[in-house]
Amino acid sequence: MALSTSSVITLNINGEKRTLPVDHRTTLLDALREQLDLTGTKKGCDHGQCGACTVLLDGSRAVSCLQLAVAAEGREITTIEGVADGDRLHPVQQAFLDFDGYQCGYCTPGQICSAIAVIEEHAAGWPSAVTADIRPEAGAPALTTEEIRERMSGNLCRCGAYVSIVQAVARAAETEARRSAEAADGELTA
Fold first, then answer.
1. Which has fewest Cβ within 10 Å: 12, 51, 72, 84?
2. How many alpha carbons fall within 13 Å on the CB side of residue 150?
3. Cα distance from N-terminal residue to C-terminal residue, the chain
């Protein structure tokens, strides 16, 4: 008996369920771009080394060129198309615009998805390879230029917009921290 090499799967992408037939070897990147017309996620190296195809899987960053579409079934997938809140840009998107954190723009969707995860990882107290004190009681390290560069190192920019990207991530992190503090204050006074 021959085994099937394809399946019909349902992916939860940007809050919407999408059902599609896929060959079991189809990457999430190819399913997004070629079958679902979500072309914001870019195909760069196709080897998981450049970060152009970065999406969020259950809130964590993942290079979609190394993720099989069938393995993403049942997970929450967020692409660049799902980052904004309607017409309101995500703070990371706004910071990239404000600081010119893009040149040609090809790597920008992956950079933005990674930056969103970086800010959340940092806020949760996750250390990086450059974090000096990794003891849990030390708390989150300061989000310095070195921390941002290390945490974003999986995303390459051929145009060299790194200085602006780091500034954009720092600004977006400040904005998110301020919003979180304001939300916490609002809950305390309610």
1. 84
2. 16
3. 64
C-alpha closest to that of 162 among 120, 117, 99, 109:
99
Q: How far apart are CA 36 and CA 13, in angstroms?
A: 10
Burial of 61 (0-12, 13-18, 19+ CB in 10 A): buried
What is the tens place of the pLDDT at every residue in 52-91?
999 999 999 999 999 999 999 999 999 999 999 999 999 9
Q: Give the chain as a DSSP string.
A: -PPPSEEEEEEEETTEEEEEEEETT-BHHHIIIIIS--TTS--SSSSSSS-TTEEEETTEEEETTSSBGGGGTTSEEE-GGGTSBTTBPPHHHHHHHHTT--SSSSSHHHHHHHHHHHHHHHHTT---TT-S---GGG-SPP--HHHHHHHTTT---TT--HHHHHHHHHHHHHHHHHHHHHHHHHHHH-
What's the rounded Cα separation, in Å, for the pair 23 and 118? Answer: 32
Strand partners, 9: 20
Q: What is the pLDDT of residues 31-51, one digit of tens each?
A: 999 999 999 999 999 999 999
CA distance 110 to 165: 12
Sole residue written with tokens 């450059």: 130
Q: How far apart are CA 68 and CA 91, in angstroms?
A: 30
- From CA 25, how far away is CA 5, in angstroms rounded? 8
